[in-house]
């Protein structure tokens, strides 16, 4: 019997991710700012709105972020009264595709923490949203794939999906570890699971109101704090 069943978010919980998209934002922001003579801040604000709109409509698929940037480019073309050019559209899309092509650096302490958790008898499951091929590749490239008992990639993370993933596992031993209030903490608390929240720089899609006074909510400063926290708090879940 496992001591605990730990559902780990991947991006910005185990491996750093958001900084890659921030860099792509800046590159596309400066490119479009130069094309249309607009402040970069204005471009980035519009792009974030398109990104959120597209993601909420179609999910976190491989083409969601690039499509949002192309829509942003076409929006500024319309405002400038000129037709989009295919070469410009392709450059915008190429910049937006760049983050998906990079190898992610690990969060400090991730490998050591996962090793310790396995030694202590926990079941480790990756629970991540996005494109299946992309997310699987990230895990494989990280060198941490053998630390996990299962990798589950889903279009969207919510309580219904988490309940299905839990299956017949003992709810009192299930724990969610992640940085997203919306996709990690909220589903866990809705199901009465221990939620270990490791906040990180994120984007609007991950924002949500959560009850930080909930007895099953624990905010951590680092992934390194997970093992000790489990020893102290796991018995409170359920």
In short:
The chain is of the alpha/beta class and 238 residues long. It has helices spanning 18-36, 40-58, 64-80, 86-97, 110-119, 132-142, 159-166, 181-190, 226-233; strands at 5-8, 123-129, 150-154, 174-178, 194-197, 217-219.
Specify the helix fraction band. 40-55%
Please indicate the count of domains: 2
Order of helices and strands: EHHHHHEHEHEHEEH
Output mean pLDDT. 93
Shape: elongated
Strand order of the largest sheet: 3-2-1-4-5-6
Q: Specify the structural class.
A: alpha/beta
Runs with pLDDT <50, length 5+? none
Per the CATH scheme, the topology name of the largest domain is Rossmann fold
Question: In the CATH hierarchy, what is the superfamily of the largest domain?
Answer: HAD superfamily/HAD-like
CATH C-level class of the largest domain is Alpha Beta
Multimerization status: single chain
Count of individual beta strands: 6
Distance between the termini: 17 Å
> Strand percentage, roughly?
5-15%
Per DSSP, the total helix count is 9
Tell me the Rg in angstroms.
19 Å
Topology:
Layout: E1 5-8, H1 18-36, H2 40-58, H3 64-80, H4 86-97, H5 110-119, E2 123-129, H6 132-142, E3 150-154, H7 159-166, E4 174-178, H8 181-190, E5 194-197, E6 217-219, H9 226-233
Parallel strand pairs: 1-2, 1-4, 2-3, 4-5, 5-6
Helix pairs in contact: 1-2, 1-4, 2-3, 3-4
Structural summary, described in words:
By secondary structure, the chain is of the alpha/beta class. It folds into two domains: 5-16 and 105-236, HAD superfamily/HAD-like (Rossmann fold, 3-Layer(aba) Sandwich), CATH 3.40.50; 18-101, DNA polymerase, domain 1 (Orthogonal Bundle), CATH 1.10.150. It has helices at residues 18-36, 40-58, 64-80, 86-97, 110-119, 132-142, 159-166, 181-190, 226-233; strands at residues 5-8, 123-129, 150-154, 174-178, 194-197, 217-219. A six-stranded parallel sheet has the order 3-2-1-4-5-6, with helices on both faces. Helix 6 links the parallel strand 2 (123-129) and strand 3 (150-154). Helix 1 (18-36) crosses helix 2 and helix 3 packs antiparallel against helix 4 (86-97). The longest helix is centred in the N-terminal third of the chain and has 19 residues, at 18-36. The protein is elongated, with a radius of gyration of 19 Å. The two termini are 17 Å apart. The mean pLDDT is 93.
